[in-house]
Amino acid sequence: MPSFPLLSRLSGARAVSGRDGLPFLILLVACLYWPGLSGDYLLDDGRNILENRAVALAALTPASLRDAALSGDAGPLKRPVAMLTFALNHYAVGSFAPYTFKLTNLLIHLCNTLLVYFLAFRLLLFAAGRENEPETPDGTRARHLGALFAAALWGLAPINLSPVLYVVQRMTSLSALFGFAALLCYCRLRMEGSALPFARRAAWCGAMAALLLLSLFSKESGILFLPFALWIELFLFRGRDRGENGRFLERPLRLRRLWQCAGAAAAIGLIGIVSMRPDTWYAGREFTLSERLFTEARILFYYLRLFFAPELAEFSLFHDDFSRSAGLLRPPATLFALLGLAAISAFTFWLFWKKGRRLWLFVWGWFLLGHALESTFIPLELIYEHRNYAAIFGFCLIPSAAFGGFWPRGRRRILWIAAFLLLGGSAWVTGQRAWLWGNLAEQARYEALHHPESSRANYQLARIYTRRLDKTGEARYEELTRIYSEKAAGLPDADSGGLFTLMFLAYRKEQIPDAALFARLTRYFSERLPHGSDMAYLSAYIHCVGEGGCKTPETPVKTLLEAARNAPRGTFMTRKEAAKISALYYANVLGERETAIGFLDAAIAESGDFDARMLRVKLYTAERNFDAADADLVILEKMDTSGRRAADIRGLTRQNRAAREAAAQSATDSAP
Q1: Distance of CA 296 to CAs 123, 300, 521, 651, Å?
Q2: How would you class 366 by CB atoms within 10 Å of its CB: exposed for 0-12, middle for 13-18, buried for 19 or more?
Q3: What is the DSSP letter of 237?
Q4: How crowded is residue 276: how many other Cβ atoms within 10 Å of its Cβ?
Q5: In principle, which of 31, 459, 520, 523 could form an S-S bond with 488, CB 3.0–4.6 Å?
Q6: How far is CA 463 from CA 347, 469, 505, 605, in A?
Q7: Model confidence over 622-656: pLDDT tens digits?
Q8: Predicted TM-score of the model (pTM)
């Protein structure tokens, strides 16, 4: 049977024997996920991959690789490592076939399952507190079985499905790949201690630093693997060093200093967060900071339910039907959730402090650390399953610790039965979910059926029926599109997608949409909080108007655009997008270029938007204001520090120069 010498070296374990069943686990995970590889792209896949010209890599040149890596707009670091892998995916097969992208995601997940196995093997030894006991064949075999069980629980957990079958969430799984590998490097370094020569210690430290950087530049949550390493040190290695006799030497003073440093870092971080006034970051969200924190307390327990009691109907790509907490007793479950978090934290700390049982606090703390960024004060979406990809690793160690001798013998049989039931249920649900994800229509129907209060799930189904309507022209698909669009538009916190879909249904019949529909859209922008998706729908609509496919009198369109530009709850991001969309309509449809330039002036003054300035150069050129166009081109060259948009700027420069020369020639020819 195959062995994994590199990973075995990292973990300090010997080559895995056939009895451990690791190849069979990898095969099982691959087989369960295989039906899902035939699924299609979803949601953000379009913006980040399909519509991203830089990802369509045609040649492996330094410039094209750089452009691909820097072409992302997700996160402050733009996630260049993940974006580069998307581009290499396209280059390898010459197309955007979703199967190959999802297959790459599956291979990453299988590699992560291997890493979880080897990391669990090393951690279980220290979790049981038997690191100073001599190695025995039975002890080694027990830890192999425990690590195999931990890897099985993690690899088959249905809550980990979206980072595999939702292509753009490769950012999550790739970050975990490098992060888990970095932790293995750290464990290997700490296992050897000062007995290692300086050159080898430096090599392990360099490898760990490089892997952490790759994790961070795959997704910003990769920064959490630094506190994960500290957590391992505090609870498992405990500041000790391996002496000349191979035994770990106690260093209580060093451990105390580690705890003091960790506490100081946490306090400094908390003070820094408070001083930055995170409550001011929520202008673009429907919820406040307090509402988010209250809601996340309930969401954490929901995540635990999805892991420990997986039920197919509870899982969804969308969880916008999860109600927000407006206060401690609204709903009452908020208070119970907060008390539950406090109680579990206190109980695990008591077990650690009074009973010396480190595993419980280690596991619980790992879960909370895993959610320290995406489930706390940062104003992200409230709930996504993929946020648990690294966070649930700790829980996988609990039942597997029975194999390593951590649990008393009398309780192991009950634990094994419960663990095998959890493993079987997880595998069953993951297989069912993968089958659903292999057919986008089936997935959308199932999620809309079991999450009827989810506006996004209903709109996703409406979009699928729209595609079928475009393809077949059958009247039943028109009716289904109308039903689910209306349902999506009528739910709380819905965006404008359903309303725009209803408008396009009218245009399909070469009719002008009802005035009431325009009024609903105008009221939406006037009363609700517009999102980026609303700007995308509005842009698609104006594009349709410009091409003549959506013939509409200018008055309702102007009213709608004015409402979008002046939305009382709009952010500077939505206002600048509305200004650019308005400029396109006024310039291309109405021919009012001066008015369009005025809209762009406002957008540029507020945010210095690069694309708005590019569009203004085109309008300046059309208006023969060549000097103003040249001034903007100079600014654009300074803004494009990475050189990614250099070709576009050169193209505009040539157009402006050619128009200037043509105007000069025309003036010469017309001179008497």
Answers
A1: 29, 6, 31, 48
A2: buried
A3: I
A4: 11
A5: 459
A6: 48, 10, 12, 36
A7: 888 888 888 888 888 888 777 777 878 888 888 88
A8: 0.87
The answer to whether the CB of 224 falls within 8 A of the CB of 178 is no
User: Cβ distance 179 to 111 under 8 Å?
Assistant: no
- Tell me the sheet residues that pair with 249: 241
Mapped onto helix, strand or coil, the DSSP state of residue 296 is helix
3-class DSSP assignment, residue 327: strand
- CA 47 – CA 233 distance, rounded (Å): 41
d(C-alpha 253, C-alpha 261), whole Å: 12
> d(Cα 403, Cα 150) in Å, to the nearest integer?
10
Over pLDDT 70: what percentage of the chain?
A: 86
Q: How far apart, in whole angstroms, are the C-alpha atoms of residue 118 and residue 136?
A: 18
Q: Which DSSP string do the residues of 335-349 spell out, in sequence order?
A: HHHHHHHHHHHHHHH
Task: Retrieve residue 633's tokens.
Answer: 């081109």
CA 299, 300, 302: angle at the middle one, nearest 5?
60
Residue range 198-206: mean pLDDT, rounded: 83
The residue behind tokens 């770990």 is 248
- Helical segments of 438-512, H only: 440-450, 455-472, 475-489, 497-508
DSSP letter at 330 equals: B
CB 204 within 8 A of CB 189: yes
Structural tokens at position 451 = 């999450």
Query: Does residue 88 contact residue 54 with C-beta atoms inside 8 Å?
Result: no
Angle (nearest 5°) at CA 82 between 644 and 152: 175
Nearest CA among 252, 466, 227 for reference residue 370? 227
Residues 6+ apart with CB under 8 A from 325: 291, 294, 295, 297, 298, 331, 333, 334
Q: Distance between the two ends of the chain, CA-based, in angstroms? A: 92
Shortest CA distance to 507 belongs to which of 559, 549, 463?
549
Segment 171-191, tens digit of pLDDT: 999 999 999 999 999 888 887
Cα 571 to Cα 573: distance, rounded to the nearest angstrom: 5
φ, ψ for residue 560, nearest 5 deg: -65, -45
Contact predicate 147/118, CB 8 Å: yes
**What is the rounded CA–CA span in Å between residue 437 and residue 31?**
14
Distances (CA, A) of 485 to 178, 358, 474: 41, 52, 17
Specify which residues 327 forms β-bridges with.
330
* Cross-strand partners of 242: 248
**Residue 157 has which token pair?**
């957990």
Cα–Cα distance measured from residue 68 to residue 87, given in angstroms and rounded to the nearest whole number: 6
The answer to whether 147 and 120 are in contact (CB under 8 A) is: yes
Q: Which residues contact 433 (CB under 8 A, 6 or more apart)?
A: 36, 158, 161, 312, 315
Mean pLDDT for the chain?
Answer: 83
Q: Among 621, 615, 618, 588, which residue's Cα sits nearest to residue 602? A: 615
The per-residue pLDDT for range 455-472, each reduced to its tens digit, is: 999 999 999 999 888 888
48: tokens are 């980040």
What is the rounded (10 degree) CA torsion for 480, 483, 485, 491?
Answer: -140
